[in-house]
Amino acid sequence: MSTPRAMVLRAAGTNCDGETARALELAGARAEVWHLERLAAEPARLEQLEILVLAGGFSHGDDVGAGRVWGLDLRLRLAEELWAFVERGGLVLGICNGFQALLESGLLAPRDSEAADREVALTANTSNHYECRWVTLESAECACPWIVGGERWPVPVAHAEGRFAVANEGVLERLRAAGQVALRYVAPDGSPPDYPANPNGSVADIAGICDATGRVLGLMPHPERNVSPWHHPHWTRLEAREAGEGLEFFRRMVAVAAGVAV
Amino acid sequence: MHASTEPQPATAATALPDAWRVECFRRSAADDPDGAGLPAAAAELGVEGLQAARLGRGVLLPASLERGAVERIVSELLADPILDEVRLTPPAVAPAVPDGVRRVLVARKPGVMDPVAQTIRETVARVGLARLADDACVSTFRAWELSGSLSDADTALLARRVLGNETIEDVLLDEEGLFYGPPETGPLHGRVEVPLRDADDARLAAISSEGGLSLNLEEMEAIRDHFVAAGREPTACELETLAQTWSEHCKHKTFAGTVVFSAPGEAPRRFENLLAETIKRATDELDRDWCVSVFHDNAGIIAFDGEWDVSFKVETHNHPSAIDPYGGAGTGIGGVIRDILGVGLGARPIANTDSFFVGPSDLPADELPKGCMHPRRILRGVVHGVRDYGNRMGIPTVNGGVWTHPGYVANPLVFAGTVGLIPRSCATKSVAPGDWIVVAGGRTGRDGIHGATFSSAELHEDSETVSSAAVQIGDPITEKRVLDALMTARDRGLYRAITDCGAGGLSSAVGEMGEELGARVELETVPLKYPGLSPEEIWISEAQERMVMAVPPEHVDDLREVFASEGVETTVIGRFEDTARLLLRHGGEVVGDLSMAFLHDGTPRPVREAVWNPPDHADPGVPPCADPAAMLVELLAMPDVASKEWIVRQYDHEVQGFSALKPLVGTRGDGPGDGAVLKPLADSPKALALGCGANPRYGLLHPGRMAAAVIDEALRNVVCVGGDPDHTAILDNFAWGNCDEPDRLGALVLAAEACREAAVAYGTPFISGKDSLNNEYRIGGRTIPIPPTLLVSALSVVPEVARVVSMDLKGAGNGLWLVGATRAELGGSHYFAALGLDGGEVPAPDLARAPALLRTLHGALAAGCARACHDLSEGGLAVAAAEMAFAGDLGLALDLSAVGALEPGGAGDPDATLLFSESTTRFLVEVEPAAEERWLAAMEGVPLARVGRVLAEEVLEITGRDGGRTARIPLADLRAAHGGGFQG
After folding, report:
1. Residue A131 pLDDT exceeds 80
2. Omega before residue B851 within 30° of 0, cis
């Protein structure tokens, strides 16, 4: 298959679109950055893509709630096209604010859910403020085809509202059973994390989830900020590096989009 | 449709808002950290009775909406389905309040920017939740519900000190009468003349002070004489334009003024233009070929690599931050970012730097001067302001500092800086006759009126109440939209010149752009947030997030389309014309007509007197240290040394993906890095290092040495991480007391002269700067100046990113080398501060040797000789060594006898001098044994001593010059002392 085509979607206040597009290009995709309003005007563009990434930032200032307004735009203005994209086999990734918007958009829930049916939320960190720090993730055995279960990898988080919360215990059990828990925070040695290894107080240390098909993934950490040899906070202590661990995350996503199993 | 079943209809007394009231409270306290955290914040204030609190997010929506529409807005947009419970109250009805709680409502004052309300309004319309009329009002508020046993007085104290800021917010105690609707407007007027021609001196002074013009008598006289000659009275617009343009904030008339300096035993010296003959002269003398644009634009520009240059600017934003720390710091950042957007044809911001000078966090409440906020509240507020604006702009905040001194209690300082990346071809701009004047960005309101003149005056007890209009509220997302649109418009060549709307608003922006040409502005075309602004309010409003461009007529349509695609409004407000005049009209009437020559060159140039009498302190020598371990622990906990991690982690320091060395380094990320490094170009190995230096303790004792020492410090910080001292530019930011006082101005002269000498010696030109010269606080008949404060910021090119070095120790068995000479220089040191000593020798860089040392060290680092490098600053060698050790999780054995004879002669206790002296141009460098030979060869000619050895055991050992062990401290103790201070 030819080079997968990716769109990095942004809205007013998105600010990680540049580095996200660079990471996708480094990983072998052809990436373009589009404003939501342009996509709303030309939604047919989605038919020519294999990957859609909602980039991080502060869409609409996170006014009202993190990712709330952007997600509402997607749900009320582009739902048909987005669902068609996923059902056709397209891959969707939401990073940080993109994950928050993805939750609000309904794309991580069963189709035709109402806003009021949402059972999970991303809300204020237990510390009650924005935090920028590196954490360790453990990839789970899950429905997402480009996540390799059991791997541990470093990546930074940078958010104020990343605490994963659920309406009740049953929701957690259903997510686990359906293979939708994709990424968890762990201590650097793999043991259960305390703060700050779990940087926001997320329930069950959940850092990222996918939908039931595995083709829609959202995560709070920023893999696009760990792609160069100089991104890691300890690179001056380490042997020379070719790339950051986050690049492999994007390479696998691009490979799956190209029809290659990882 | 007003439901009649709800409780309590409105009465005139309560004036309930005629709007739907939505209040969203978190169901669980665990999801309401603001509420859950309030009892602790109350206890800090001495309010003990608060048991629990909840924070509700309130919104007022137009009464004209049907209930169904309101409910849909609530469920789709405002409330979280699993976290929130919602109280919906119909218009003009009092909300049902739970029993036993006290309510405090906090709402933006009418006319103060409310970005969240704006987002709600736009979203409701855009996604089709409801139809809103053009003049429909949406506003937001916070509803606090407090339970426990709170007296009225305690509730009021909590409301004013923690829950709201009455400078910009209405705070209602157990009262539901929220303001709703457009702000009330004053009587509208067109052309207003101010009778000046017959005014005597007393009347002139009164007009200046009553109008908040901050013009002195001499300036008022010059204006009067100008209009006498013109044969008419000035208009209000003209007087305001002159006041803004001539303000200290915009004009720097003191620093660029004529000064006669005298000091004991010296012949008086005269400077026609102090700035030009000191700071700028150094840049001229150095004549570095990589200086692309210095001093004349919104920021300085230097060459970086290939087709790319970098721009750098640091601004002061002090007075607004004193009365509204959150908003003041936020708009400070917003302003300096716009400086970068408005340099040349516009640069892309890639990094922010922020420094604060504040009073002690542990200041007893009864020592707080009347009308001042507690330093704790100020520091939290400015940190949150920087965080919320910088993070939302998507610009990493990678560098900065916090300095604490009692001299800043009433007059905190906030410095905000931005680095931008700009294509080589975009460094210059011009304006042509016939270009349209286009304003882009946010709308204009009655915010920030007189910001420029306010910041040029001294603060006093009532500043908080009388100056609230001078405070602006930022809306970072509007500025982010402007940034996104601007980069596209720049790359398509759609405008010929650009500048930002900062202090003085449109009056300064248009006045500066049209200085060489002339301009005509139709004030009624400026888009307003709400109706009712007078022509002069429109003209001088400092409403944020606006840029002004000169646009060739043929590009106007394309430009407007580019900005519209990002949701940014653009408006043609006038034209640049070859008239040499500034013509202002409103509704067809001329409200101002000034010659550009008088506006820009009509300022009187008085001769200011400056004197210097050195402070009379006995030199206490260097008293021995009985317990170096205890002293080191004490120093690590002092606020200037202690960890700033609680601040740094709240800033996004990695967005944009260019981070190559973070502000915090080491195994646990608790090592205070010297400079931050960014690698912004994918196809170049070059990187940029950012660092800064300041020291008010030195400033109080010896302003000249302070200036040289902080330049040295800024350079040390960038050289440490790999920056090339021969490709480094610096910025000056002076914050001083009232320079009409000869002693304050004398100190400034000394500092400015020292800047010139040091900059020339190091080969590092100043490329831009900003001063703030009226930092005094008046209580009764007494005024208190701040310590003489100079922040020097350095931007340096790192030739090869792979050679960047961090400060954390890397490997047991490696040697630790002290680079540079240690002298008995403890004046202004932290050691003296800990001992309560005043006076002494302030560190003075050896300008004959220091520059060569920096170059030599840079060569050694660039050759890969070192594993770690850290500069010696506050607290001296002992503090630097401790930081390197705990950052690397590795121990260290220090042997002071390895250092040869001290210069000069080693007055005082040599161990204390070696451990705690703050002599400049010194570093600790970790070198592997295998690299030692190369290291020694590379460092030939530089004072050097292998003063330590890296240990696997996590302990710091110190052996004195007499061979006896003087300290052995577990790293855990050092780490605890360093990280145990004020945490916000």
Report:
1. yes
2. no
> Is A262 within the bounds of a domain?
no
Identify the band that residue B984 occupies on the pLDDT scale cut at 50, 70 and 90.
confident
Report the C-alpha dihedral over residues B491, B496, B499, B504, rounded to 10 degrees: -150
Looking at this protein, which amino acid is placed at residue B795?
Answer: L
The pLDDT assigned to B321 comes to: 78
Tell whether B879 is covered by a domain. yes
Higher-scoring residue by pLDDT: B211, B912: B912
Contact A64 B116 (CB under 8 A): yes
Q: Is A224 noted as a catalytic residue in this protein?
A: yes
Residues of B in contact with A233 (CB under 8 A): 662, 664-665, 669
Taking phi first (over 0 means left), then psi (-120 to 50 degrees means alpha), and beta for anything else, what does residue B540 get?
alpha
Residue B466 has pLDDT above 50, yes or no: no
Find the range with the poorest average confidence among A144-158, B179-193, B432-446: B179-193
Q: Is B196 on the interface with A (CB under 8 A)?
A: no
- The answer to the question of residue B963 being in a domain is yes
**Helix or strand run (H / E) with residue B892:** strand B891-895
Is residue A159 assigned to a domain?
A: yes
pLDDT band at B5 (very low <50, low <70, confident <90, very high): very low
Q: B620 Cβ partners below 8 Å, 6+ apart?
A: B832, B837, B838, B839, B840
Residues of chain B positioned with their CB less than 8 A from the CB of A236: 661, 665, 804-806, 808, 810
**pLDDT score, position B694:** 98
User: What's the domain range around B49?
Assistant: 19-173
Q: Is B656 on the interface with A (CB under 8 A)?
A: yes
For A50, the domain range is: 5-257
Contact with chain A for residue B306, Cβ under 8 A: no
In chain B, the residue whose alpha carbon lies closest to the alpha carbon of A123 is: B31
Q: Indicate which of B652, B867, B983 best probes the interface with A, i.e. most A CBs within 10 Å of its own CB.
A: B652
Active site residue B189: no
Residue A124 is nearest to which of B33, B665, B669, comparing CB atoms? B33
**Tokens read off for B625:** 């240290």
- Domain tally for chain A? 1
**How far lies B716's CA from each of B364, B651, B816, B880, in Å?**
36, 24, 17, 13
Q: From chain B, pick out residues whose CB is under 8 angstroms from the CB of A64.
A: 77-78, 116, 119-120, 123
Spell out which residues of chain A touch residue B119, defining contact as CB-CB under 8 Å: 60-61, 63-64, 69
Residues of chain B above pLDDT 90, percent: 79
Query: Does B68 map to a domain?
Result: yes
Backbone CA torsion sign across B563, B564, B566, B569 = positive
Q: Residue type for B398, please?
A: V
Structurally, how many domains does chain B consist of? Answer: 2
CB contact (8 A) between residue A231 and residue B126: no
Q: What is the CATH number of the domain that holds A105?
A: 3.40.50.880
Task: Give B909's contacts (C-beta < 8 A, 6+ positions apart).
Answer: B622, B623, B624, B625
- For an interface test with B, the pick among A9, A10, A14, A15 (most B C-beta atoms closer than 10 Å) comes out as A15
Kindly indicate whether the ipTM for this predicted assembly is greater than 0.90, answering yes or no.
Answer: yes
B317 is annotated as an active-site residue: yes
Chain A residues 89-108 with a CB less than 8 Å from chain B: none
For residue B357 the two structure tokens come to: 């000078």
Average pLDDT of the segment spanning B61-77: 96
Taking CA–CA distances from A117, the nearest residue in chain B reads B81
> Which position has the higher pLDDT, B488 or B113?
B488
pLDDT digit string (tens) for B838-872? 999 999 999 999 999 999 999 999 999 999 999 99
- Note whether residue B31 is domain-resident: yes
Q: Which of B112, B145, B173 is the last residue of a domain?
A: B173
Q: What is the tens place of the pLDDT at every residue in A200-214?
A: 999 999 999 999 999
Residues 6+ apart with CB under 8 A from B522: B573, B574, B585, B586
Q: What is the pLDDT of residues B293-352, one digit of tens each?
A: 999 899 999 999 999 999 999 999 877 778 889 988 998 999 999 999 999 999 999 999
